[in-house]
Specification:
Blueprint (H helix, E strand, L loop, with lengths): L32 H4 L7 E2 L3 H8 L5 E2 L3 E6 L11 H8 L10 H6 L17 E6 L8 H18 L6 E7 L14 H19 L25
């Protein structure tokens, strides 16, 4: 004779079976869901302005309405040898192996001193972020965008082609559509767009890039009347 589990329970308590464990739905749709299905350690950060300049000097590899990806094969420049910064300062040189423009310096989003070190990454992949204030005026918005870029890139892992990557915020999100500086709607929109962009990067896609035509030389001024 089987006993009812609820009969032996104290008064006021009813025995309930444990809820079934359902998998959490993966954000994104279509091919982009393949990125979010696996979690990998974060990519090493690109930190030196000279490395940013080298990567950004290449044509953008992929773009979306708000983001752009630049890619350069190979590793970052070697870290400065001990005492180099003091020697450069004594000689009046700017650390970093190359000139650093004021606009680039103010747009780098590394959170560390960009002239001291490079993160070591055994996977051969580095990630740098450029989130200009002119496209995201609020600091909470810039922090939200940077977190989403790093998280989506981390999900790519070794499926991302090796080399140095720079993700750049190329256009602001419409404040009329996203009035809050760090809303869930803004987070979801940025993540969905980044999932699609990095999925294309994993598949080796490239946007068609057309070099700008050089401006035609100005016509010579007509000669004046003879003296």
């Amino acid at each position: 004779m089987t006993s009812d589990p609820s009969a032996s329970a104290p008064a006021g308590l009813v025995h309930q079976a444990p809820p079934a464990s359902n998998p959490v739905p993966v954000p994104g749709d279509g091919a982009a869901s393949s990125i979010a299905s696996t979690r990998h350690p974060p990519l090493a950060r690109l930190v030196r302005p000279a490395d940013f300049e080298r990567v950004l000097a290449t044509p953008q590899r992929l773009r979306s309405p708000h983001f752009a990806l630049h890619h350069l094969e190979g590793a970052p420049l070697p870290a400065p040898w001990p005492g180099r910064r003091r020697a450069e300062a004594a000689a009046g040189a700017v650390p970093g192996d190359s000139p650093v423009t004021s606009s680039l310096t103010t747009e780098l989003s590394t959170g560390v001193d960009a002239t001291t070190c490079n993160d070591v990454d055994d996977s051969g992949r580095w990630l740098g972020l450029v989130v200009p204030k002119r496209h995201a005026r609020r600091s909470v918005t810039r922090a939200l965008v940077k977190r989403q870029i790093r998280d989506v890139a981390a999900h790519c892992g070794n499926r991302l082609p090796a080399g140095q990557w720079v993700a750049r915020l190329r256009a602001p999100f419409d404040p009329k559509e996203f009035p809050s500086a760090a809303s869930d709607a803004l987070k979801a929109a940025a993540r969905a767009e980044l999932l699609q962009l990095f999925d294309r990067a994993m598949r080796g896609e490239r946007d068609k890039w057309r070099p700008r035509k050089a401006a035609a030389p100005a016509a010579p001024a007509p000669a004046g009347p003879p003296a």
